[in-house]
Design brief:
Chains A, B, C, D: GO terms for molecular function: 6-phosphofructokinase activity; AMP binding; ATP binding; fructose-6-phosphate binding; identical protein binding; metal ion binding; monosaccharide binding. 4 copies of one chain form a homotetramer. Chain A is built from 11 helices and 11 strands. Chain A is α/β, with parallel strands linked by helices and about 325 residues long. Chains C and D meet through α1, α5, α6, α9 and α11 of C and α1, α5, α6, α9 and α11 of D.
Chain lengths: ~325, ~325, ~325, ~325
């Protein structure tokens, strides 16, 4: 028989992502609605180890749905990677009376949560919160839509100046292992070419494409490059292209951390609210070691282990093919 | 045997929606890529009746992916509602050599397209383009995400002033028969109450809710009201509430047509590109009288008749329940 | 000899305006830098009467420069309009040890501050904070630039849909006595006509202008109407125009309170910082009953009485003439 | 006696800036209103040399007031730096019947215009168009306000993630010789420190400041660095700081060309309209070799030579001092 949950701990871990605050709000208010206490754990697993707990009531999450970042903060925690660290963390939870967890974050967050839950038999539900959209079991992760919109605003602005000067621009976007942002935002920005970690686009292919554009009188072009692209990042690609393609004025922009911030979009706020709400309902229903995700506009649960182990190619195939055709 | 298509006509009809231009671009470029000619039909069915055709090449749709509205314009057309009108339109299409159609719009657009296709045996694929998200067969319609973001930006701004003055705000959003915008944007905006056409919320219930908020020290509240709400619109609701709830300073804002415009979001641009691309591919594959929609992040075809006849309740049930809980 | 100031009270009063928080931050931090204590007075003069004081340190104003609204809140206060009310307020200030004031707000705020200062000999400096830009002695008031940008974003969005449908739009903006927002935002939005309280534009003139536009093939038009326009507001103007000008589809939008909110623009944040800083420096220099304003990108002091009594026409004349010419 | 002007040429030159299109629109429509013809010269002086002229009517500038970049494009032109180049350009102007010029751009644009006008006796008025705000004779240049707003949006986003991770961020903004953007946007963004080309801030001073912030419990800091700062750019400063200040996680963002683009703000659109309008009125009044600028919210003329030769320190001194105090 499942023991009734009395006090839920909620934390954010890994890189911050827009929507985390909306999700914290949903966890806190759903918990309170269901008669639980809710405790915020500061700075992710580090706060669990260091006993940084803060009691949350309905007012603690007032007026945060629209804020980027995370009010609970986030940090790396090497100690939690050891059994001893997790044991210490668990003892702290116990002392505090926390008997269930909602952990919001990415791959590393899931791994930590899964271990803790298995080793010390505490129920845990994870919410996919990362701008990279690289988690199995959810069509979208918290922050991905906001990051895409931040990138296309930048592309729209750069296109103004690219078109005014007949220039070629290389824009590097986040994504060390995942080309999701590059593909979606590049498609939405009407980029002339998109370089991804998942697909080997040689420099020769890229130059051919740019030459074709130049022949058909395109006077400016924008190339989106995921930071994890095999050719070695925007500066390096620009250097290689410059050698063979001299008549163009080439500029590079690295968007960097501004992609992580910003007020979450409507999509991310609704997604964050649904998943936070569903996480608490899942705990209440006796679930554990699951990720709550969205599939086909419906909330679905996936085993944490399955989500962690599944690195399958996530990019939509029609998008890959289409993005090439639409920039002819 | 299916006759090969040589020339595709593309039109936008009904209310304009952000993403329509991105969709036109996708139709034109996919058509050209597949070796077809593409003709733009101006002002929807009216342009079909009046022969307002314009040849489109790859450059015609350059730099439009980010624009709101529709470069092909849109209009109502009473003539097209008659058999004679459609016959005249069909003759014009034939004279022009147009042997297939992509029609972007809502309910009324679909009905017109379905009739024309059936009566004159011309293949047609429809794309759901309306900010209302009220079409069966697609999780999302073009423009819905952009409209939601426009609404939450307005809510965020109004909350600044509501909180500074301890005020109660009623914000009316679009949606004569559909509460989709009200529900999503209200949820994303953290609205204290949401009134929808699909659900009967009496004034008494609303007042109870607002009183509860006042008791728990909420100093300001925002109520979202879909224009089709049974209580009769924001001004009327405000009047009724004022009578019973006098200690509050109550203000009304009608967002109106600014919800239709604006540069489409990343989500809408990608959706528009995918659906425009898929529409042409569907025609090429011999499909007709279908709507291309998105379901679970995959493109799916639905019979036009099925889409038109299906007025089933579309609001996500978990959202309905959740939106009440999260504003405690 | 001027007595050294030890404790400064800061308040916001009247309608809230973006930039008020940036100004509070500047007052607090400049005060602390100069070795004073700073006390926030909540809800304007009401909080002075009701002793709602809160001690402010450097951290109290951390991360508020970008927030719309006012963290000190604002309210109307009828009691303060009486001598007895002001006496009570002054006694509270004295009890608290507050020996100087910075008051941020509009016309009414200035009048209250001037009276209190004169009657009870407490030094006071005012900062012009109102989106209406209707105060003598400063080229710009806090929030005006932000409000203008909010309005042009709305106009840009509405133009998308106006152009797609060949429609005529009437947009009502704030300004009961002042046409500043209407003139600047109308000019910046490329409005086809602008109706202001300061200038009598008859309906006949407006119709003539719209007809001229229609003749020269303008397919859509946008008319900006200040709420204080003599013709009686956007709904009324639309009704009158409809009677004589039937071939157009006419729509009305009332922007309302969303013009008050939003994160302040760069211009408003810098202005707010400069004026808050200058207000404290002016108190330190022994000034009283002055408004700090910006004239020609330099901070200038103006006597409060002069500012209050001067209702001179503030609209830039070149703008008035120009706005007519640029929409030909 | 001044010869009446019949045909005005308008061009944009140097780096593009938001507001250039609004200015072109004002020049064209004011010219037409005064009975002149107006010709657009493409790609700045290069188009003058290569005869890239395009006739402009009222419709040519329809719906461009809100667009970033420049529809006339801009380019560098080495040929125009020689007498022979300018002679060729002048002959082309004469052949086309262009008897007066409006040139929109920066320092280099002014120098070219001044030479051409003096050597060949053709009247010319310049408009200050550059995001750098580094021209003498105008409080503000076209595009500066928009660039500042682009930068503070980036700062606001980066602060979300800085605060969530307790990080130190270095953000490099445009300004090779001018710290205007760094100072205004840094002030508006609440940056903890600002490094400018005009002021020598040693690394030691910076570190001291950051240490003081750390002592007073600031958990995150943002430092704005103009690209022309004497310490050698953001990457280099970050490297030097890292060596002495190891407990912080330090990140660098280079905003780059996205600062040049984007829809102009209300301020820039109004400024651009006023200056374009005033430029044509000045030509009509017989003026030449002048820059039209804004001083104290009034249009003022300045001799081009005076503007070119005057490199005086333009930064507002109160801002310099204040920006240090407000981040305590």
């Amino acid at each position: 028989m499942v023991k009734a949950i009395k006090k839920i701990g909620v934390l954010t871990s890994g890189g911050d992502a827009p929507g985390m605050n909306a999700c914290i709000r949903a966890v806190v208010r759903t918990g309170i609605y269901l008669g639980k206490e809710v405790v915020g754990i500061k700075q992710g697993y580090q706060g669990m180890v260091d006993r940084k707990f803060v009691n949350m009531d309905s007012h603690s999450v007032c007026n945060i749905i629209q804020l980027g970042g995370t009010i609970l903060k986030t940090a790396r925690c090497d100690e939690f990677r050891t059994y001893e660290g997790r044991q210490k963390a668990y003892k702290n939870l116990k002392k505090e009376g926390i008997d269930a967890l909602v952990a919001i974050g990415g791959d590393g967050t899931f791994t930590g949560a899964e271990l803790l839950s298995r080793e010390f038999d505490i129920p845990v539900i994870c919410v996919p919160g990362t701008i990279d959209n690289d988690l199995y079991g959810s069509d979208f992760t918290l922050g991905y839509d906001t990051a895409n919109n931040t990138v296309i605003e930048a592309i729209d602005k750069i296109r103004d100046t690219a078109a005014s000067h007949d220039r070629l621009f290389f824009i590097e976007v986040m994504g060390r292992d995942s080309g999701c942002i590059a593909l979606w935002a590049g498609t939405a920005g009407g980029a002339e070419a998109i370089l991804l970690p998942e697909k080997d686009t040689g420099i020769e292919d890229l130059i051919q494409k740019l030459e074709k554009g130049a022949d058909s009188n395109k006077s400016s072009s924008i190339v989106i490059i995921a930071e994890g692209d095999k050719n070695g990042g925007a500066y390096h690609v620009a250097k290689l292209v410059k050698e063979k393609f001299q008549f163009y004025d080439i500029k590079v922009t690295i968007l960097g951390h501004l992609q992580r911030g910003g007020s979450p979009t409507s999509f991310d706020r609704v997604l964050a609210s649904r998943l936070g709400y569903a996480a608490v309902k899942a705990l209440e229903a006796g679930e554990t070691r699951k990720m709550v995700g969205i599939r086909g506009n419906r909330v679905k649960l996936t085993d944490l282990v399955e989500s962690i182990n599944n690195n399958s190619f996530k990019l939509e195939e029609d998008l890959m093919e289409m993005s090439t055709i639409l920039t002819i």
